[in-house]
Design brief:
Blueprint: E1 3-7, E2 10-13, E3 18-25, E4 34-39, E5 46-51, E6 58-60, E7 68-73, E8 78-83, E9 92-98, E10 115-116, E11 120-125
Parallel strand pairs: 2-11
Antiparallel strand pairs: 1-3, 3-8, 4-5, 4-9, 5-6, 7-8, 9-10, 9-11
């Protein structure tokens, strides 16, 4: 059974930092594109960042570019999202997603991702 489990969310003041983790089990993610999405209250889920299998290529939503960094440790079967200079508008439930296509291309379209975590809440106070 494939599971993606996010952790690291919480409450932080504006300008602060958080590091999210996504631990995979039941499958090795080392050849797969992984991504982070988020969903704010009353809004649709949106793309945040994606990373290729090796970690050598990444892509970000314009709203987080320069503040967030996606990375991965394939030996630990884990993907990370380092979030700096957080803003109240970053408040959302953050989801990890796995595309599960061997050596696949980066994509921001959530329909391309097969596996999803349960989400972790990030709240940024002003």
């Amino acid at each position: 059974q494939v599971q993606l489990v996010e952790s690291g969310g919480g409450l932080v003041q504006a300008g602060g930092s958080l590091r999210l983790s996504c631990a995979a089990s039941g499958v090795s993610i080392r050849t797969y594109v992984m991504a982070w999405f988020r969903q704010a209250p009353g809004k649709e889920r949106e793309f945040v960042a994606t990373i290729n299998w090796s970690g050598g290529r990444t892509s970000y939503a314009d709203s987080v570019k320069g503040r967030f960094t996606i990375s991965r440790d394939n030996a630990k079967n884990t993907v990370y999202l380092q979030m700096n200079s957080l803003k109240p508008e970053d408040t959302a439930v953050y989801y990890c997603a796995g595309r599960m296509v061997v050596y696949g291309d980066l994509t921001e379209y959530e329909g391309e991702y097969r596996y999803w975590g349960q989400g972790t809440q990030v709240t940024v106070s002003s």
